[in-house]
């Protein structure tokens, strides 16, 4: 399928910002944090819990603001401005990791939370740009392309880091190598956002208002007051709240979980890299199959695979077990995220896409508060991280059952 310039530019943003997910959220920074916390005398399962709490707190601020910001951004010219603001916030605090002393683990967590606010906030408006760059019949494929090429693009800086880490070819210290990884992440993110800044524009919008903030609050209030007419959208959001919670938690806590199992840093990094590579073709496959079987059926398929992952986690003891779990995640992580994004884009009013994607993101972000906290608490109570992972099965079951009651796609219509 040939992509338009706008579609390509939108996909390139995923290629660019996904490096943050693998380098900062999943691989490099979590491992670095675990080492700093260990040097401070903090037990592995406790530092895992702290990392979970940091992820939860880091999303709280943007979760509370998401519907408000989204409603304001529906006015002409506001969407790209908000996107740029949060993008630069995330990039700036990714660079700021370089200036954190190696013994200041609390400051490191604070900077991580601020960078996460930037990354998560930018994605609210990036997701809503999907309705501006493509049509309903191409939406599943374009959304899947975004996630797929995001996985592929993020591998390039990751492979570069692994190469220099493994070979020691550069005459620099480990700290300098890590700082280089943080800087590379920020530069990569910024450079590949340029096409979106240049070529993607807000097509669907509400005409400019002299008092956009005040009017946005009024519109948001009306939406909440008349929420019953959007019951199909609400039901989807509640289902999404639960199942994406489990997806995000497994993704964000993977490195900490692997370390708790005794897996070496090198092995863990290689596993995460292979997972990204596996995710590339499978995400595209999900997009292709959605055209034949429908987005809802493919989302339910991915939920079923995640239920298997959670159950399997109870019995994990070796690196081989971790490899199996990681490959299962790679087959479905991108698919469930991409099709959830495009499925939602089809059932909302396009001219109010930011407002509704604000709700979409607040449900996703609030779930990101609950999931890591749940896993952290269970890990602390039991003293076993695998039981924390297993507890997430409840979230997938609830989300899957609720999704069954979402009616077939009714494009851009209140139901």
From TrEMBL:
One Pfam family in the UniProt entry: ATG22
Transmembrane segments: 12-33, 53-75, 82-100, 106-126, 147-170, 176-197, 233-254, 266-285, 297-316, 322-344, 356-381, 387-406
UniProt keyword Cell membrane, yes or no: no
Broad class of where this protein is predominantly found: membrane
Record bears the keyword Transmembrane helix: yes
Stored InterPro entries: Atg22-like, ATG22/LtaA_families, MFS_dom, MFS_trans_sf
Gene3D superfamilies named among the record's database cross-references: MFS general substrate transporter like domains
Cell compartment(s), UniProt: Cell membrane
Residues in Major facilitator superfamily (MFS) profile domain copies: 232-415
Membrane association type: Multi-pass membrane protein
Keyword tags: Membrane, Transmembrane, Transmembrane helix, Transport
Domain of life: Bacteria
Protein name (record): MFS transporter
Organism the protein comes from: Listeria newyorkensis
């Amino acid at each position: 399928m040939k992509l338009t310039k706008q579609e390509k530019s939108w996909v390139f943003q995923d290629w660019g910002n996904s490096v943050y997910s693998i380098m900062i959220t999943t691989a490099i920074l979590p491992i670095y944090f675990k080492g700093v916390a260990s040097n401070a005398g903090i037990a592995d399962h406790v530092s895992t819990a702290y990392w979970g709490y940091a992820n939860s707190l880091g999303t709280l601020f943007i979760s509370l603001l998401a519907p408000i910001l989204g409603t304001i951004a529906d006015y002409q010219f506001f969407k790209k401005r908000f996107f740029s603001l949060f993008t630069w916030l995330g990039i700036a605090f990714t660079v700021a990791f370089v200036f954190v002393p190696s013994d200041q683990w609390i400051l490191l967590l604070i900077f991580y939370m601020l960078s996460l606010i930037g990354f998560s906030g930018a994605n609210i408006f990036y997701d809503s740009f999907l309705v501006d760059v493509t049509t309903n019949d191409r939406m599943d494929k374009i959304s899947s392309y975004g996630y797929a090429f995001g996985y592929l693009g993020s591998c390039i800086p990751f492979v570069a880091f692994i190469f220099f880490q493994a070979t020691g070819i550069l005459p620099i210290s480990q700290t300098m190598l890590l700082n280089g990884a943080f800087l590379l992440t920020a530069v990569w993110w910024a450079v590949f956002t340029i096409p979106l800044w240049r070529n993607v524009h807000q097509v669907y919008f509400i005409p400019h208002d002299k008092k956009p903030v005040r009017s946005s609050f009024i519109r948001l209030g009306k939406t909440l007051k008349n929420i019953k007419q959007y019951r199909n959208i609400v039901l989807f959001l509640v289902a999404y709240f639960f199942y994406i919670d489990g997806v995000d938690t497994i993704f964000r806590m993977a490195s900490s979980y692997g370390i708790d199992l005794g897996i070496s840093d090198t092995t863990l990094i290689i596993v995460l890299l292979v997972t990204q590579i596996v995710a590339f073709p499978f995400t595209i496959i999900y997009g292709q199959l959605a055209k034949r079987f429908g987005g809802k059926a493919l989302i339910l398929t991915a939920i079923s695979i995640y239920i298997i992952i959670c159950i399997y986690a109870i019995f994990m003891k070796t690196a081989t077990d971790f490899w199996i779990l990681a490959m299962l995640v790679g087959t479905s992580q991108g698919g469930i995220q991409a099709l959830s994004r495009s499925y939602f884009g089809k059932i909302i009013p396009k001219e109010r896409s930011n407002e509704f994607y604000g709700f979409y993101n607040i449900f996703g972000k609030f779930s990101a508060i609950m999931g890591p906290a749940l896993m952290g608490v269970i890990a602390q109570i039991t003293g076993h991280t695998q039981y924390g992972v297993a507890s997430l099965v409840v979230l997938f079951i609830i989300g899957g059952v609720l999704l069954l009651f979402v009616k077939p796609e009714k494009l851009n219509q209140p139901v």
